[in-house]
Specification:
heterodimer, A: about 525 residues, alpha+beta, 7-stranded antiparallel beta sheet, B: about 70 residues, mainly alpha, 1 helix, about 25% helix
């Protein structure tokens, strides 16, 4: 890829007790804190540099809106006794990742990666970390099924949690160009990146005033995307309600003069390694086009409506209205971007792989042969499972077993995960080996500032007093000093990496940091 | 030569296994429009069917959770 990319995944928690009896904040915090972690880690996070209310459009909102219909449980006694630090359970791992309790869900954030293979390995490493946390937590409580973690995006009761991608983008790109190119692309990329869902949780569910249990509005049926039901607007800064197709949060976690962090909140969490790689790889190429002023100029007339239309269009044939009065299919929209991206053919093997597989997927979808994508695209794999277990008969989507099959696909426990069952049977294409994933648990992604962070942890962990994506603060002889990490890759990072690697003592690091810290 | 691990899945059939794990649909319900069409490898598919059914039996119904982001 031509840019660093990271993935943050909130995991769902299916708890043995009824929802009203569960203190989700406490459970998420304890689960994260239970994780057996390899290598040197750091407990804590420096929030001083974070401001999620800054908007790319040049404003700062007074507050972020919250979902008025979010689940509110009566049982918060345990979480209320925790300190803020205990509740957030912030942890920086030896591989540079962040693992913490975000909005009452365990969240694993990979550090930025430069290759799809690295990114997939680190995303999968996150699954292993949270699975072991589940095992440890359940063992500690003596309840083997106290909590089951799922890598999905819905509780099937009208509430969603996210899987966000973060792409470093040049700030020189006009924001309107970025938004204009992203919206049609994000609305339609679900045809190969969707995780599939055996339910319709339309936004009308939000009109139901059930605050505790299932909201009215869930209907049986299968759709391509887990998340499409939860997006209500085209552009905005909120993330938990009035979710926008294009999120305008302006937290670059890097040199703000040079970069934006494109915070993509519309994606599904993929179990398929292939789908993760294609989703991110195609998006990264789309951003290359935007930065070169070469992105297709398509404008959907009703993007939010189109998002849901595409999600319900398993044959990928329904027309989407464009602003100029003509219509296109989702596959046509993607084809425009793919054709424009062909200019990058030959750039490197990874780019060629993305172009080949992106084009092949579009060919199959256009030929109404999505079933042939069942070895690589999550929604097609899941739909094939339904077909298999249904013995070719029509599926009753209102059968509770349909939801159980759906959720079982996403379980992180390999023994009971239907995705893992398919992978073990050789029915899912893989991008990395098990060894790659194991290595990623303790090794930072190559050639990014993640390596600097990991090296600092490995060598100077007792002196680290604060960390965030863009800096590391150390304590030495009663004083503190900070190593700034404003760049994610390139020569500056290479110099900083060499500097930390060469330092044998904290005194040396202190001295060199004061000389400029490699920047 | 590919950039990835090269452990591609073998081509496999998946359709038409015997028996049903889910109730037959009532009239008017939506049906999957994409069903695998290749011929099944009977033994492997049967094994997977049994494993899928076991998992579906053991997995609890999903319960409400807080929204996130």
């Amino acid at each position: 890829m031509n840019r660093p990319v990271g993935i943050e995944t909130e995991y769902g928690m299916i708890c043995a007790n009824s929802a009203q009896a569960v203190d989700f904040a406490y459970e998420a915090a304890m689960l994260v804190r239970s994780a057996p972690l390899a290598g040197q880690n750091f407990r804590g996070w420096d929030y001083a540099a974070e401001d999620p209310r800054l908007d790319l459009r040049g404003t700062r909102v007074a507050r972020l809106d919250q979902d008025p219909h979010d689940l509110r449980t009566e049982n918060t006694a345990k979480s209320q006794r925790l300190s803020r630090q205990e509740l957030l359970a912030d942890t920086v791992l030896a591989n540079g990742a962040r693992f913490y309790n975000d909005h009452n869900h365990p969240e694993y954030c990979t550090d930025a990666c430069l290759s799809l293979r690295d990114l997939v390995a680190h995303d999968k490493a996150g699954e292993r970390v949270v699975w072991r946390a589940q095992q440890a937590r359940n063992a500690a409580t003596g309840q083997p099924d106290r909590v089951r973690l799922v890598k999905n995006n819905t509780d099937y009761h009208g509430r969603s949690y996210g899987c966000h991608e973060n792409y470093l983008v040049s700030r020189a790109v006009p924001l309107d160009d970025l938004i204009g190119a992203c919206i049609p692309f994000f609305v339609t990329r679900q045809i190969y990146a969707g995780a599939g869902k055996a339910a319709h949780e339309s936004q009308s569910a939000y009109e139901a005033h059930s605050t505790h249990e299932t909201r009215n509005g869930r209907q049986g049926g299968f759709q391509i995307s887990q998340r499409a039901d939860f997006f209500e607007t085209e552009v905005g800064i909120n993330t938990t309600t009035q979710r926008p197709i294009f999120n305008t949060r302006d937290e670059p976690h890097a040199n703000a003069q040079k970069y934006r962090r494109l915070h993509v909140i519309i994606g599904d969490a993929n179990c398929s390694e292939f789908a993760t790689a294609l989703r991110v790889g195609a998006t990264a190429l789309m951003l290359d086009l935007v930065e070169e002023g070469a992105a297709p100029r398509l404008q959907l007339q009703h993007p939010v409506h189109a998002l849901r239309t595409v999600s319900r269009d398993l044959e990928c044939t329904r027309p989407l209205a464009l602003a100029d009065g003509t219509t296109v299919r989702a596959v046509d929209v993607q084809r425009h971007y793919w054709e424009a991206a062909l200019r990058y053919r030959g750039r490197d093997a990874e780019t060629d792989w993305v172009l080949d597989e992106w084009g092949a997927a579009l060919d199959l979808l256009e030929a109404n042969a999505a079933a042939k994508l069942r070895d690589r695209v999550d929604w097609a794999a899941k739909l094939a499972l339904f077909a298999q277990i249904g013995g070719g008969e029509r599926i009753d989507w209102d059968d509770p077993a349909a939801l159980r099959l759906d959720v079982a696909y996403h379980l992180v426990d390999p023994a009971v995960s239907l995705y893992h069952m398919l992978a073990r049977a050789g029915r899912m294409r893989r991008i990395v080996t098990d060894d790659d994933v194991e290595r990623a648990e303790t090794t930072a992604p190559a050639d990014t500032r993640a390596g600097v962070r990991a090296a600092c942890l490995a060598k100077f962990a007792p002196h680290v007093s604060a960390m965030e994506w863009g800096s590391i603060t150390f304590q030495h002889n009663g004083a503190s000093f900070t190593l700034a990490l404003p760049e994610l890759w390139g020569e500056t990072v290479a110099r900083q990496q060499a500097m930390v690697d060469a330092c044998q003592t904290i005194e040396e690091l202190h001295r060199l940091t004061h000389k400029g810290g490699g920047t | 030569m590919t950039w990835y691990a090269g452990n591609e899945a073998r081509t496999e059939p998946a359709a038409g296994a015997a028996g049903r794990g889910l109730r037959p649909a009532r009239a008017g319900t939506e049906a999957p429009t994409k069903t695998p069409t290749e011929a099944p490898e009977k033994t492997e598919t049967d094994d997977l069917d049994e494993e899928i059914r076991r998992i579906i039996r053991e997995v609890p119904d999903p319960t409400p959770q807080p929204g996130g982001e």
